[in-house]
Amino acid sequence: MKFITTPVKGMQDFLPADMRLRQHVMSLIRSSYRTYGFDEIETPVMEHIENLSGKIGGENEKLIFKVMKRGRELEKGLETGEIADNGLRYDLTVPLARYYSNNRNNLPTPLKALQIGNVWRADKPQKGRFRQFTQCDIDIIGDSSIMAEIELIAATSRMLTTIFEEVGIREFTVHINDRRILKAMAAAAGFPEDSYDDVFIILDKMDKIGLDGVRESLLEKGYAPEAVEAYIGMFRLITPDMTCGSFCEQVCASALDAGVMAGMDTIMTSVAGMISKDVHLMFDPTLVRGMSYYTGTIFEITIDGYNFSIAGGGRYDEMIGRFCSQSVPACGFSIGFERIVTILRDLNWKEPDHGMEKMAFLVDEKSGADKIREVFAKATELRAQGQTVTVQPLKKNAKFQVETLEKNGYTSIRKVYGDTEL
Fold first, then answer.
1. How far apart are alpha carbons 172 and 301 in whole angstroms?
2. Closest CA to 310 of 11, 20, 29, 19
3. CA angle at residue 312 from 216 to 118, to 5 degrees?
4. Cis amide leading into 110 (omega within 30)
5. Is the dihedral of CA 388, 42, 18, 301 positive or negative?
6. Are the C-beta atoms of 189 and 250 separated by less than 8 Å?
7. By the 8 A CB rule, do 190 and 224 touch?
8. Maximum C-alpha span of the chain
9. Which residues pair with residue 134 across a beta bridge?
10. Of 282, 315, 283, the residue nearest 296 (C-alpha)
């Protein structure tokens, strides 16, 4: 049998330089969200298949890596056709809902949770999209007010500003909408209520097929031409500087609670006062978000020049109740960790200088035991002071060895022979 050295398609090996970048980004994420009062939690990588396939994960439910039953249970499963009992989690939201339902008596209200962990999707790999990848989520559970949305959007915007400043990116756009506005628009146009999710799936493709493509797709689905034309006409009214209130008054005010419009404008004005002026907040009636579990405000963050979002989320007030049979409001933001790392790598991110040099001792193999002990004693002393120190045998190709160390951030490199003063 021939062993394969490359990783499974859609999964990655990480070199030391990759890990330094990833750990740096994780550190910034943790420290930034900590200042907003988020506490880190952890959930298992494997979930019950019933939870993962319970019609709350949207399109991701088609991408589950299922785990087969074992032993006698597998034999029974082969007879019934149900051979999987668990699956690798495809996001962190479904596990969070189960986690909260299981532990709610020991958790604060509201819970401000931060999760960072790997997820798996049987997806087609492409740039910025993998089958195994790290996801980072923040969620506020137990707060039904718009203060949750304000905290989530502001905290994530500040965190991304901190990260991207290191590669010279200061501008990005936060797109904000509300599923209730999407439903009011569909109702005002004349679509039947049971068609809303189908209409939204088509609308969600607008960035790829354009507004005319949305129109043609709706007509091909057999929807009434007058409803389609009315719906498309609403999107032709969009202007760059419009507010949620001004837009909704034109197209769907009669089908929408006025509190939704007022809440949206309050969210945007409140967040604007908390973040960098280079971050653009935009009410975006075309924003859908693919998950059907969203019940209210939805948001997404994009950067010019990249054809993918770097963060997205929204309010999902009904999901946790499916686990614990009681109403629990929830709102969350999922940060595209892998996409952020991809952008930083594309822009030649350099590891920050933290003011403490990295030092290497390259010890000649002919050095005696006393010199070796002396080197390790010195290294121990420097490490106790917080300095990074590596001790290595001096190789014959010392030039290449030094170049490699310098590439990895070592600024002080000392070749040690028998008579070297330390």
1. 7
2. 29
3. 120
4. yes
5. negative
6. no
7. yes
8. 91
9. 118
10. 315
Give the count of beta carbons closer than 10 Å to the beta carbon of residue 167. Answer: 14
Return d(Cα 264, Cα 38) in angstroms, integer.
23
E-strand ranges in 196-283 read 279-283
| Greater model confidence, 334 or 419 | 334
40 three-state secondary structure = strand
Residue pLDDT, tens place only, 329-365 = 999 999 999 999 989 999 999 887 666 789 999 999 8
Give the containing element (helix H, strand E) for 36.
none
Residue type (1 letter), 260: V
- Residue 12, class by beta-carbon neighbours within 10 Å (0-12 exposed, 13-18 middle, 19+ buried)? middle
Q: How far is CA 378 from CA 64, 106, 275, 421, in A?
A: 52, 48, 46, 11
What's the order of all strands across the beta sheet hosting 388-393? Answer: 388-393, 358-363, 410-416
C-alpha span between 234 and 228 (Å, rounded) = 10
Closest to 208 (Cα-Cα) out of 354, 89, 308, 333: 308
β-bridge pairing 111-120 and 132-141? antiparallel
User: pTM above the 0.85 mark?
Assistant: yes
**138: pLDDT strictly greater than 80:** yes
Q: Where are the alpha helices (H) located in 167-224, listed in sequence order?
A: 179-189, 196-203, 206-220
DSSP code of residue 94:
H
Q: How many CB atoms within 10 Å of residue 212?
A: 10
Please report where in the chains the tokens 């797709």 appear, as a residue. Answer: 217
Distance, in Å, from the CA atom of 257 to the CA atom of 80, rounded to the nearest integer, reads 48
- Percent over 90 (pLDDT), the chain: 73
H or E, element range at 254: none
3 state SS for 299-328:
EEEECCCCCCEEEEEEECCCHHHHHHCCCC
Tokens at residue 153, please?
A: 């959007």
Task: Give DSSP secondary structure letters for 351-408.
Answer: ----S--EEEEEE-TT--HHHHHHHHHHHHHHHHTT-EEEEEEPPSSHHHHHHHHHHT
Encoding tokens for residue 114?
A: 């931060």
Question: Coil, strand, or helix at residue 211?
Answer: helix
**Closest of 323, 282, 315, 334 to residue 145, by C-alpha:** 315
Q: Does residue 300 carry a pLDDT above 90?
A: yes
**14 secondary structure, DSSP code:** -
